[in-house]
């Protein structure tokens, strides 16, 4: 898929009639009706995505961690130096980050997309490089990306998603890495939900009260600079990051291939809002893995109408919360596929 309009057109709505079939099937299984609670809703969603009931087993889940740097880091919105983005990506490659530990515990393959890191990491078999730019411009003073740069990042994410699906991935979890990226996330969430900068801006990696006030002002100023234009692509380019754009591309490509998309924390929720604004039919493919502590995550999830699977008070990103939800999504499909019918009891 080499242009955005083609990618958007390739996404077809999920088919609700398969949810009905899933409900009927659940009612006939050897368990009291509704006794598996939201696991049943999840299985029904998987059936609507796959257009088949029971849905296929989730046998080969993948995680894409998109990484990028941010011009707005210069405003002092994060206590961490920008080089941490590069160092953490190298840690993903070495299999030493939190995301790797949880991915191997949950049986998930990890790939990393350098969507636009300021100091690019060394080449590694798990890294793909978008090759667009080395970090965004400062969204506080000017658009973070041009529309062309943003489109290229979306397509880079879509290309990696396609490659993972071609090599067997049947669920894609989203993860992010990018020092200062909770600032563009807050700006995107405010723009796409209509909530105030004050409400959706959080402490990110753990900033003090003074820095939080500064961050809220930076987000509010960026929203004022951007103005009322709610065109999804221009909004994403103006207020977002390269990793947000790339993750929106992953969601679009996965939806186009009828593959479920598992969201992580605030940064992937911001990317999901952009993807849904670009293509409303993407929504049916999204599953919220967890509720991040960041306030913008809850605002974004509420706007999308998504109820997260887990709430473990995580506030890391990298895909950690999405990864932890993978066994639950797998189990939802397994129940609908494998549990005996009431009529088979004693047979
Ligand atoms: C060592 C380290 C590992 C991380 N892994 C994810 N993040 C998370 O924190 C960053 C965003 O927070 P803020 O906007 O406050 O900078 C992102 O990179 C996010 O993925 C990390 C942050 C650090 C410092
Ligand atoms: O919840 C998240 O995803 C998160 C929170 C803080 C920093 N980075 C990510």
Could you explain how this protein is built, in words?
It comes from Glycomyces luteolus. This protein is an alpha/beta fold and 347 residues long. It has two domains: 4-56 and 333-338, Orthogonal Bundle (5,6-Dimethylbenzimidazole Phosphoribosyltransferase, Chain: A, domain 1), CATH 1.10.1610; 61-328, Nicotinate-nucleotide-dimethylbenzimidazole phosphoribosyltransferase (CobT), large domain (Rossmann fold, 3-Layer(aba) Sandwich). It is built from 14 helices and six strands. It has helices at residues 4-9, 17-27, 37-50, 83-94, 98-106, 147-166, 182-193, 197-200, 209-226, 232-239, 242-256, 266-278, 295-304, 320-338, and strands at residues 61-68, 109-116, 127-129, 171-177, 261-263, 286-288. The protein has a six-stranded parallel beta sheet, sandwiched between helices. The longest helix is centred in the middle third of the chain and has 20 residues, at 147-166. The protein is globular and about 70 Å long. The model has no long low-confidence stretch (mean pLDDT 98). The site of alpha-ribazole-5'-phosphate has 17 residues, from helix 4, strand 4 and helix 7.
Give the SSE layout:
Elements: H1 4-9, H2 17-27, H3 37-50, E1 61-68, H4 83-94, H5 98-106, E2 109-116, E3 127-129, H6 147-166, E4 171-177, H7 182-193, H8 197-200, H9 209-226, H10 232-239, H11 242-256, E5 261-263, H12 266-278, E6 286-288, H13 295-304, H14 320-338
Parallel strand pairs: 1-2, 1-4, 2-3, 4-5, 5-6
Helix pairs in contact: 2-3, 3-14, 5-14, 6-10, 6-11, 7-9, 7-10, 7-12, 7-13, 10-12, 11-12, 12-13
The chain binds alpha-ribazole-5'-phosphate and nicotinic acid.
InterPro entries: Nict_dMeBzImd_PRibTrfase, Nict_dMeBzImd_PRibTrfase_bact, Nict_dMeBzImd_PRibTrfase_N, Nict_dMeBzImd_PRibTrfase_sf
Keywords: Cobalamin biosynthesis, Glycosyltransferase, Transferase
Catalytic activity: 5,6-dimethylbenzimidazole + nicotinate beta-D-ribonucleotide = alpha-ribazole 5'-phosphate + nicotinate + H(+)
